[in-house]
Amino acid sequence: MHIHPHTLTGSAIVAALTLGLLAAAAAQTTKAGDIQRLEGTAAVQRTSAPEGTPLKVKDYVFVRDLLTTGEQSKAQLRVGRALVTMRELSKLRITEVPGSTSTVDMTDGKLKLFAKELKAGERIDVKTPNAVTAVRGTTIVVEVQRPPTGVITLLSVLNGFVEMTPLDPVTGRPSGPPMRVNDLQQTTVTGSNPPTTPVPINRNDAIRLDATFAFKLQTTPVDSDLVKRQAEQAAKDAAKIQGGGTLPGTGDGGPVISGDDLRTRSGVTGPLPPAGVRPPSRN
């Protein structure tokens, strides 16, 4: 029986499309982590819910889910043995399965990542549009800024050390060699430029920066109307970022580094300085 070449070509295309759809579906059912803590509104956008769904504590997050936080909101996500805390108006996606290397792909906002006692060969990468930071057991804060002139990545290391590699904002490929950033240091990557030479972070500034990721204590009964309004806002937030680009609650995963931890280690005493002050990019 003679099979026309065009038939084979068509079959190959259908098979490729089917495999692609199956791969995307598998990613959507591969657990990447779960929501540990939540303050304000947060939402998730996935293939099964492209319009966005409000997130709640204990919700699972899957590979390729797009997570967003609303105004005056925070969300904490467990990814393997790490905790990722998102500040307000942040956007991220987990793009690889935990186990060896997980990638937190962040396009907007600010996050804190705490990784403790990772297994041999295990690593977490925090990727922004113009840099990627390899974490193997440390605490970092990463912020993506988008001024009219382009994209800026600001990396602050609160504990341990990391390696940052600049990326070409257009191609996403490495545009320079990795650079080590040590404990209580900070560096900035502007556009396609190399990272700035790491500069020290004042210890009190580091304490203040860490404190901006703290969650409020729940001391009053939950307001059901407030929860409803927050859920509605989360759905609106998700709708705004539909189709967004290329693209952590403590439990038994170890303590999150806090201002008290830093003060104890650094010998700083007295009351915690007020939160909300950005550490200077240079001394």
Unreliable runs, pLDDT <50, ≥5 residues? 12-27, 219-223, 244-283
Could you give the order of the helices and strands? HEEEEEEEEEEEEEEEEEHHH
- Give the helix/strand class: alpha+beta
How much is the average pLDDT? 78
Tell me what the CATH architecture is: Sandwich
Q: What is the overall shape?
A: globular
CATH class: Mainly Beta
Radius of gyration, rounded?
21 Å
Query: Could you please say which CATH topology applies here?
Result: Jelly Rolls
Number of helices, where a helix is a run of at least 4 consecutive DSSP H or I residues: 4
> Could you give the distance between the termini?
78 Å
| Subunit arrangement of the protein | single chain
Largest sheet: 17 strands, mixed
Strand content: 25-35%
How many strands in all?
17
How many domain regions?
1
Helical residue percent band: 10-25%
Describe this structure in words.
There is one protein chain. The chain is of the alpha+beta class and 283 residues long. It has a single domain, classed as Jelly Rolls, CATH 2.60.120.1440. Helix content is 20%, strand content 35%. The protein contains 4 helices and 17 strands. Strand 8 (91-94) and strand 9 (101-115) form a beta hairpin. Helix 2 (203-211) runs antiparallel to helix 4. The longest helix has 24 residues, at 5-28. The model is unreliable at 12-27, 219-223 and 244-283 (pLDDT under 50).
